[in-house]
Amino acid sequence: MKFNQKIISALVVLVVLLLIGTVYFHQVEEWSYVDSFYFSTMTLTTVGYGDFTPTTDYSKIFTSFYAIFGIGAMLYIIGTIIGKFVFRQEKRFEHLISRLHIRKGAKIKEIKKSQ
């Protein structure tokens, strides 16, 4: 799977998770959509300010599984982006090294010709 496809699929999963969390907390905890989205985002990013907390047993159980799967999705997205960045840096480094070897090889040939 290509990098762009990985990012798009991971972002789709993230949006779906945010929607599920937002709707769930709005319905069960009776928070506003903004507060529900805020809590979902804070949970998935592991920030967790603590200004909102689930009050029902069902919400606590849901939040536990939501955090496990959601944090996994966030780590996948971050890992994919960092992996692409590292891959690009490796390619740049390899290109730089190959250019240095070409220059070094040309200088060695020039020195040998002059001897």
CATH architecture of the domain at 3-81: Orthogonal Bundle
Low-pLDDT stretches are none
Radius of gyration: 25 Å
Strand content: under 5%
Number of helices: 3
Class of the domain at 3-81, according to the CATH hierarchy?
Mainly Alpha
Biggest pleated sheet: none
- The third-level CATH topology of the domain at 3-81 is Helix Hairpins
Q: Total strand count, please?
A: 0
**End-to-end CA span:** 54 Å
Describe this protein's structure.
With 115 residues, this protein is mainly α. The chain has a domain at 3-81: Helix Hairpins. Helices cover 83% and strands 0% of the residues. It contains three helices and no strands. The longest helix is centred in the C-terminal third of the chain and has 58 residues, at 57-114. It is elongated and about 70 Å long.
